[in-house]
Design goal:
434 residues, single chain, 36% helix, 21 strands, 4-stranded mixed β-sheet
Length: 434
């Protein structure tokens, strides 16, 4: 009798373990089933390791990529294929951050019960192929990145990385970096666009900033080293110092704030950390704390020294400034819920910076260079140490009907206004005319 009881207990224990294991499996299947089903060995949706399902379109329904029945195709128009390459990706998987690879699970139908199916499914991206084409043409083959988003919704309307190639032909072997999406996977010396970070910190930590006068005689001595400016600006307000992009003024501000404060603001404003664009990891930036009171400390607040910023991270910052400090997290596929908003910086601070960026255009850049656009902007000419500078132009339209934020970077392009400004103007003119 005791033996039967022991055996019955053992059977009950085994049954309990079986049900516990089954419960764990069901939970894991619920959590990870889609990932399991998307394994590249699944012949139902992959052919020789290539996803054989789904359609990708732009926001207007233009087909950018289509696969099915062993046939893989891209957009009909060559310019569209090249301008949208890095956002869409390629069927060979060379561009890992493109939608074909990074968002492949959205191109197949998945059921918890039946698994995946290769039935045709369409994934519309938020980009506008025509705007991408405009940006591609405006770059004139130069290496760089162009981003435009709606800062009220977060939708990315334009994402172009150069150099690029026609995926129907393949890359030119002589071109370097064609697989790199420079909008999200590269980080550049920011130059004076970083002054937006230093300005934010100054507005919130230097009480007399608005009444202070900053003097520029063309350079300033810092512990025996010389910090040079791009001009001789004399006495100026903080608003004028930003418009002049005065290194002397911002060196003074940086030294007063110190490395810890600047590092904290660079982190809080999202310029040093990596981000997630619909699950796609973006490139992290860098802000190295130099010794307090040194010329290197001064240069770090000016956007030089070892500073690095990803164009996508800068897009987030200027979007938040445009939107009263509130960031709608950028997206390539649209938000399912309106829960992606967060306060990136104080509303009053954002409004003051917005006013100064408007003053930049009116006072320094010339609104005539951007006819019909209510543009607020900041230029950057980032020295790279090899005799050439990266040209930056970042900002937004102060326009309720066209709430667009933008970032343009031209590698080794020279001055930000002269190199990147016309590219931004071309894309924004096309955007507002739609």
């Amino acid at each position: 009798m005791k033996k039967i009881k022991r055996r019955a207990t053992a059977v009950l224990v085994l049954v309990a373990l079986l049900f516990a294991g089954l419960a764990v499996f069901v939970v894991r299947l619920w959590q990870d089933g889609r990932d399991w089903a998307m394994f590249r060995g699944n012949a139902e949706i992959y052919t020789n390791g290539v996803l054989n399902a789904g359609i990708i379109t732009d926001r207007n329904g233009v087909v950018l990529a289509r696969a099915g029945d062993g046939v893989f195709a891209y957009a009909d128009d060559q310019t569209t294929r090249m301008s949208c390459l890095h956002a869409v990706g390629d069927y060979s998987g060379n561009i890992g951050t493109g939608a074909l690879t990074a968002l492949s699970d959205r191109l197949v139908r998945y059921s918890f019960v039946s698994g995946v199916s290769a039935k045709e499914r369409t994934l519309p991206l938020t980009i506008d192929a025509e705007l991408n084409n405009t940006a591609y043409r405006a770059l004139w083959g130069r290496a760089g990145a162009v981003l435009v988003c709606n800062y009220k919704t977060g939708e990315i309307l334009c994402m172009v990385s150069s150099p690029t190639y026609d995926p129907n032909i393949g890359p030119d072997p002589s071109q370097d970096g064609v697989y790199l999406n420079r909008t999200i996977s590269a980080a550049y010396t920011p130059g004076s666009v970083f002054k937006l970070v230093t300005l934010t910190a100054a507005l919130e930590n230097i009480p007399d900033l608005d009444t202070r006068t900053f003097h520029c005689s063309g350079s300033v001595q810092v512990m025996g080293d010389t910090v040079k400016c791009t001009g001789v600006h004399g006495d100026q307000t903080i608003e004028q110092a930003l418009a002049h992009s005065c290194n002397c003024a911002f060196a003074e501000i940086s030294l007063e704030l110190g490395p810890d404060t600047l590092a904290n603001y660079a982190g809080q404003l999202g310029l040093t950390g990596a981000h997630s664009l619909d699950g796609i990891a973006t490139q992290a930036g860098k802000f190295e704390k130099a010794e307090p009171g040194t010329s290197l400390m001064a240069w770090s607040g000016i956007g030089q020294y070892t500073d690095l910023v990803c164009p996508y991270s800068m897009l987030r910052l200027v979007s938040a400034i445009a939107n009263g400090g509130q960031l709608m997290e950028p997206t390539l596929v649209g938000h399912k819920r309106w829960d992606s908003a967060r306060q990136l910086l104080d509303q009053d601070t954002a409004e003051r910076i917005r006013s100064m960026m408007d003053y930049n255009v009116q006072y320094a850049y010339g609104s005539g260079s951007f006819p019909g656009l209510s543009i607020c902007a900041k230029t950057g000419t980032a020295e790279t140490g090899d005799g050439a500078s990266h040209g930056w132009f970042v900002g937004f339209l102060n326009d309720e009907k066209h709430p667009y934020a933008f970032v343009v970077v031209i590698e080794h392009g020279g001055g930000g206004l002269s190199a990147a400004g016309p590219v931004a103007n071309a894309v924004l003119q096309a955007a507002v005319s739609k």
